[in-house]
Design brief:
The structure is a single chain. By secondary structure, the chain is an alpha/beta fold. The chain has 17 helices and 22 strands. It folds into three domains: 103 residues, Urease, subunit C, domain 1 (Roll), CATH 2.30.40.10; 290 residues, Metal-dependent hydrolases (TIM Barrel), CATH 3.20.20; 114 residues, Diaminopimelate Epimerase, Chain A, domain 1 (Roll), CATH 3.10.310. α2 crosses α7 and α10 packs across α11.
């Protein structure tokens, strides 16, 4: 066997532990030897490429973002107005007006990344205030979480939404005490307007190439596409598979089918063949909203909306039937559940399905798990439910768990408690719902429980650096059925790596930068 490349660096993985002077040998894109450099370097032949990283750098398995939305990121980058920088009504007005002035008048202004928690005013603008910002062109301002939107009167009129329009199933139309529209649309109510929107066109294939570079720049080599089908149905799947087949998507992807894609898979259609680059074993369901949007289903009223406890998107029977249908067809299920009542409901329904139809090999997941109660933590381990969590939410915390009432706040983001009670966590970013989806920021928040302002939230739930790194590599790969393919430095796995600066992994994470990303033994990114 001829070794193509030997990479020498301080390294860490679950299998190797930390090695101050380690090395990986690669042949044809696969790890063929790993360990102390003194044992690996002598394996080189005359043709082996030798790569040496500095002693203050760190080689890890490529990061596995187990929950993100790649196509949504493409759409946001290519065709939507970024509002991440907006911190006041005045700045929101100026940003909307500038976008309208630059447009040709035929496309709606659709903004993303808005968060009322970042605004000086600490609230949403009223419909009247929004109308003064942009009176004539339809505008949709999608909150960072993507579960609520603010719309102006021009958009409401174009969509035919009035004060007498009924709330759709799984959604709420915002109304004031007198029943007048507020311009806020929650969950499925957003579609009442969005289906009438005329957005700017998207260069999907070019956008996929550009987005993949951004993932590599953050050291990400594999992703869980957490709701394929939520934009254009089965067309979403076709877009990504075409990009992979034509070499434009050098990321390993595990698809979680949603909507029309999930329905097709459950009928045995539009199936995804398992390869080194793609697989599909999950069906995705949403059972509540978000804390920041006020639609996550919680057991006690929000701190700033004491009469609001969010709402469920499924009744118990319907959720049981949905889980059982996918489970019996051999699929695993990933359920979006943020509020403690939604987490409770999902765990109860999982328990009932697994009791009725045991399957030891299942890898059912619960996504986000932001608000919980202590009696729920042991259920993750007892039933083998993986918690897919996003510590980067905490890094950018403004108006998310901060909205929980005092009795629930101590149990928010219970990462350490789930692990301590025998559960498994897999980390991700939920990109594009955060300003930056870099795994180093997620690990920083996981290990410190701090946001970028330096505020600490529940220090008792901080993770050891080894647990956090494993959850972004080995455990994330396990959550995507890929632990025999990537996520570790182990013989036989794909040679996917990230190289960071910043020294030993016990040192701070938020200041680390990616120095190189390797996929299948090839360096695909250097700054």
């Amino acid at each position: 066997m001829l070794i193509d490349t030997i990479i020498r660096a301080p390294l860490y993985s679950r299998s190797t532990g930390y090695l101050a002077d380690g090395a990986c040998a690669v042949a044809e894109g696969i790890i063929v030897a790993v360990g102390a450099a003194a044992h690996i370097v002598p394996l080189a032949s005359a043709t082996t490429r030798m790569v040496r990283y500095a002693d203050d750098q760190l080689l890890l398995p490529g990061f596995v973002d187990s929950h993100q939305h790649f196509l949504s990121y493409v759409r946001s980058r290519e065709s939507r107005l970024s509002l991440w920088q907006v911190v006041s009504f005045a700045q929101l007005r100026d940003t909307l007006q500038l976008a309208a002035d630059r447009g040709d008048g035929t496309h709606w202004v659709i903004g993303v990344g808005y968060d009322q928690g970042r605004l000086h005013e600490q609230r949403h603008p009223t419909l009247a205030e929004l109308d003064t910002m942009l009176p004539d062109i339809p505008a949709v301002i999608i909150r960072a979480c993507s579960h609520i939107a603010l719309v102006n009167s021009a958009a409401l009129a174009r969509a035919g939404v009035t004060a007498t329009t009924a709330d759709p199933v799984g959604g709420r139309i915002g109304r004031d005490a007198d029943g007048a529209l507020t311009g806020i649309l929650e969950e499925s109510a957003m579609q009442l307007v969005m289906r009438h929107a005329t957005p700017a066109p998207v260069d999907w294939q070019g956008g996929i190439v550009r987005a993949a570079r951004e993932y590599h720049a953050r050291g990400i080599t594999a992703i869980g596409e957490a709701a394929i089908g939520h934009i254009q149905g089965v067309t979403d799947l076709t877009l990504m598979q075409t990009a992979q087949a034509e070499g434009r998507l050098p990321l390993r992807v595990h698809y979680m089918g949603y909507g029309a894609v999930a329905e097709a898979w459950l009928r045995g259609e539009a199936l995804v063949p398992t390869t080194a680059w793609q697989r599909a074993a999950y069906i995705k369901y949403f059972i509540d909203g978000t804390l920041g949007g006020g639609s996550a289903w919680v057991s006690q009223g929000y701190r700033d909306e004491v009469h609001n406890t969010g709402f469920p998107l499924y009744e118990d029977t319907a959720l049981y039937d949905a889980i059982a249908s996918a489970h019996q067809r051999g699929y695993d299920v990933a359920i979006h559940a943020i509020g403690d009542r939604a987490v409770d409901q999902a765990l109860r329904m999982y328990a009932q399905v697994l009791t009725a139809y045991p399957r030891a090999t299942h890898r059912h997941r619960l996504e986000h798990v932001e608000s919980t109660r202590p009696e729920l933590w042991p259920l993750f381990g007892a039933y083998g439910i993986i918690a897919g969590v996003q510590p980067v939410f905490m890094w950018f915390e403004e108006s998310d768990i901060s909205r929980l009432p005092d009795p629930l706040l101590p149990y928010a983001h219970p990462w350490a408690s789930i692990v301590r009670h025998g559960g498994r966590i897999a980390l991700g970013s939920d990109n594009p719902v955060v300003p930056d989806f870099a795994p180093v920021l997620g690990i920083a928040a996981a290990t410190t429980r701090q946001n970028y302002h330096g505020q600490t939230f529940g220090a008792h739930e901080a993770l050891a650096w080894q647990v956090a790194v494993d959850a972004y590599t080995a455990d994330a790969a396990y959550a995507l059925h890929a632990e025999q393919e990537y996520g570790d430095l182990r013989i036989g796995l794909n040679a996917d790596f990230v190289v960071l600066d910043g020294g030993h992994p016990a040192l701070p994470w938020h200041t680390r930068a990616v120095q190189a990303t390797w996929v299948a033994g090839v360096c695909v990114y250097e700054p």
